[in-house]
Amino acid sequence: MKILHRETERHVLTVMVDNEAGILAKIAGLFTARGYNIDSLTVADITENHAVSRITIVTKGPPSVIDQIHAQLERLVPVHKVIDLTESGPHLERELALVKVSGKGENRVEALRLADVFRANVVDSTTSSFIFEIVGTPEKVDSFIALMRELGLVEVGRTGVVGMMRGPEGI
Amino acid sequence: MSEEKSGAAILVESLVRQNVEFVFGYPGGAVLPIYDELFSDTRVRHILVRHEAGAAHAAEGYARSTGKPGVVLVTSGPGATNAVTGIADAFLDSIPLVVITGQVATNLIGSDAFQEADTVGITRHCTKHNYLVKDPSELAATIDEAFQIAMEGRPGPVVVDIPKNVQVATATWSENAIQRKNRYSPRKAASADEIAEAVDMIARAERPILYTGGGVINSGPRASELLRKFQEITGAPLTSTLMGLGAFDHRHPDWLGMLGMHGTYEANMAMNECDVMVNIGARFDDRVTGRLDAFSPNSEKIHIDIDRSSINKVVEVDLGIVGDCATVLEQMIAAWGKRKQADISEWKARIERWRAKDSLAYAKQVKGGTIMPQLAVERLYALTRDKDPIITTEVGQHQMWAAQYFGFDKPNKWLTSGGLGTMGYGMPAAIGAQLGNPDSLVIDIAGEASIQMNIQELGTASQFRLPIKVFILNNEYMGMVRQWQELTYESRYSNSYSDSLPDFVALSEAYGWKGIRIHDESQLDAGIKAMMEHDGPVMVDCLVSKEANCFPMIPSGAAHTEMLLYGDTVAGTMEDEAKALV
Ligand SMILES: Cc1ncc(C[n+]2csc(CCOP(=O)(O)OP(=O)(O)O)c2C)c(N)n1
Ligand SMILES: [Mg+2]
Asked: Most CB atoms within 10 A, among A33, B107, B525, B529?
């Protein structure tokens, strides 16, 4: 017998929670308890009184598991609302990355040229290095990093995805 | 050569590769494939306990007394949750365990399947590391790494959760499988600068003290030898925590006795008045420091610990040295060279004046031949010392009396639950110690309340013909609770009386043990001798004074200098601030 690893798909979940101690660990625990990883996670409080945080989670798992986690998330007392952006239709995803590249001569010029194409900003520079700031969909960030890898990539930092439904309605 | 094997078979091969002699365990649905592998395999011996807590404590006893990792095998759900206390105990006392837990099949995880518990989640904060293995091809490397993590650096328990379908499914096994990339390599040696600075501080000291802990034991027997050597060249007086007993010879003139809440007057006073304190493998536990703001106020402090996060966790030190006790002691001995210690004769004379208080004195003469528990431990020591026994304990007054009145002169002979303070630790730990040391005399010094917490393990000792001895200091009270109620709650003994006790002699005989009861002092020596002479497990029910208290004592929230000694009158109430402290 071999273990059949189930088909997984990528989902982006947005979770509104009360800003209380331990809630992040509890939410992460729902994923690890099922043996699934969180690909990215962002959290920040978004209300004037700092009482509510918006969490965006990108995960991969079998659809039935994602659905269960969705239901389990909603069952947590401090959780107000959970939206599976992937399920709910047209939505935006944005991510910010800082990308450090070092090199001289032609590589350096090429890096700058590509940054321009991707509308990445130079936020730090020395005579032998740049740090670019790039904002976009995860795919756009991925392809920029892939190009920079050929030109002397030193270091990458990514924020992970934040997402929002298109259109006039709020959460 | 490589071949296709089931996950269960790969697990057993991996245990063999790690030279595992014993697995302490209990079967169930989610580990049946592993048990089937063990059925026909004579290379690892399975010790069937009677409750999974017993398995974990037995593995701890084996580990602590042999220096090798203890291995536990339990089923999913209740099997794993029953083992959690032992895992947490090993975590706090830095005991290396590898705990294999069965799990429901991967496709059922998260569905509230029968006997499903989130073992990885539950044990996250009481393990050094834990794993959920999702494919048999990862198993060999995971087990190899689990043993490495359990043993290296600061030892501790590691849980490997293996779903049932991963035990059944197959993967390629090869004898020389590539092990997981070595991603864990804690620092062992100190830098030359740190050593030079430490040696300078100690050589300049006028009132030095060595304060040693369980880290010296964990570092291996060589650490104890090096400690003795280092003490000899520096001449510094030495005290130890509960966990460190045995690293130094208790008969040495510079031995101050144990320190802390029930430590000796001289040890605690010397800690308070020293000018240079050298903490070797101890962790400034609250049971040791007493009130923190009054803890050794005028000393420069050096802390040697393999765990970086122990340094400056509780007490800010002047020099933190991350490293293994044996390695660092060896470095310090080499750096000391032919130095001379500053004259510390005045310091030693002061210590002798504190020692003259005789803080371990107790009322020896009691009406009607009632046995004082301290005397029982002293006699037990006197009559067994030539056999070099391994002592385990439960938790309570008897544990402290054992620490105070039994003498220890070698490492790995004293097994007690220090950090977690787990009642029920002693008998299963004795079982593990006896298996690891078949020729040793192993005695659990117990309380009548604690022993009932894992009393079912009587059956394990019978089944495996382990001649362990359980010596109960029966005071008919949860004595330590009663003592605190006497000192802090005006003697309102709420639920601390041990009512409806079993007849321990009849109970042990029902399990095929020998049972002995000792009523009064005139029977004490004969009873101990009868216990020793019986070539099999023995339970001794030694009736002792019901209301004896454990002194010296630093009351909750007090400083080292505010010790209560035997005969001090003690007020029956306490400030709320003190009551709220641990
Ligand atoms: C599992 C567990 N539950 C509760 C306690 C709290 N406790 C500490 S000592 C003690 C009493 C122990 O009584 P006994 O075993 O008779 O020992 P004695 O103090 O009388 O020597 C209790 C209840 C504990 N340490 N462990
Ligand atoms: Mg008792």
From this structure: A33
